[in-house]
Amino acid sequence: MPKLEYFLISEGISVDQITNRLSIFNVFENVNAYDFPTRVPLVIAVVSLVKEDGDQGKDFQLILKIHSPEEEKTFEFSMNFIMKSERHRLLLNVDNMQIKAPGVITFEIYLNGNLLTTRTVNVTLIHTKADQS
After folding, report:
1. Cα torsion angle, 87, 92, 93, 98, sign
2. Of 52, 75, 119, 122, which residue has the fewest beta carbons closer than 10 angstroms?
3. Neighbours of 89 (CB within 10 A)
4. What phi, psi does 130 have (nearest 5°)?
5. What is the pTM of this model?
6. Do 57 and 125 form a contact (C-beta atoms < 8 A)?
7. What is the pLDDT of residues 43-94, one digit of tens each?
C-alpha cells in the first residue's frame, strides 16, 4: 500500500502546467472568525503518496473525513485512483465549508479504509475593540 509523504490543508493551490510543480497557499493552522456561523470559501486537502512494491497499477480509495465543532455528522469526500508512478498527488476540494462554533476541526485521511493521518485546525472567536467597550 502506498505510504503517505505529506498531507496539508490549505485555502489555495496552483499547479504549473509545464512542470507539474505544486504551490500551496495559506496552509490552514487556525481559523479566526468574528461571528458564527462562518464559512471558508475553499478548503483543499493536498495529499502525496509514494508507491511501494506491488502498488503499480492497483486501484486505491482515498477518503477525507471532516469533523467540525457543533456538527453531528462527519463530512466525507472520497476518490479512487490508480497508482501509476512513484508518487501520486491527490487534491480534494471542499467548497463553502461552514463552521458553526469555535473549537477544533479534525481532518482525517483514510487509504482503503485505514487511517493514515490526522490534522487539526483550531477555530477561534476574535473579539474586536468595539466588543471590549
Report:
1. negative
2. 52
3. 16
4. -65, -30
5. 0.90
6. no
7. 999 999 999 999 999 999 999 999 998 888 899 999 999 999 999 999 999 9
